[in-house]
Amino acid sequence: YNGTSELQLERMSVYFNEGAGNKYVPRAVLVDLEPGTMDAVRAGPFGQLFRPDNFVFGQSGAGNNWAKGHYTEGAELVDNVLDVVRREAEGCDCLQGFQITHSLGGGTGAGMGTLLISKIREEFPDRMMATFSVMPSPKVSDTVVEPYNATLSVHQLVENSDETFCIDNEALYDI
User: Fold this and answer.
1) pLDDT at residue 22 greater than cutoff 90
2) Domains and CATH numbers, the chain
3) How far apart are CA 113 and CA 101, in angstroms?
4) Assessment of whether the complete model's pTM goes beyond 0.85
5) Neighbours of 70 (CB within 10 A)
């Protein structure tokens, strides 16, 4: 932490664990059904910020298929993810809830993301669940199944999320 605000320093534990030498480690779990994205994050400028055990990934991917993310490939990986989530939750002094950031256009974020949300809801029913859900846009992707993936996900979000912030994928390109 390089800031000067005492208030910010007091609140660092909301999103970070303090490591050795006043280094702060994000209390985050990064998940994908294929290793490529995780490899890119680890090799990037922020890759060393995260705990290496908090990268959870499969080998096959979901191929933009909601059902593969929710029922097959994602279902095989979700228990590993929940183990990491549990470990992070146990490290909290006062767990308030969870924040999930995911895309609703593909198979992993939409299918496995909603599976994970429902499993976390089962295990932590009295904790807040907030999602930051990136909605697909035909102007930035030509994957024809994105609207279907998003539609299948919305029902799960209504059932298992306390608040969902819908983010327009097209608008993200204007930032």
Assistant:
1) no
2) 6-172 (3.40.50.1440)
3) 9
4) yes
5) 26
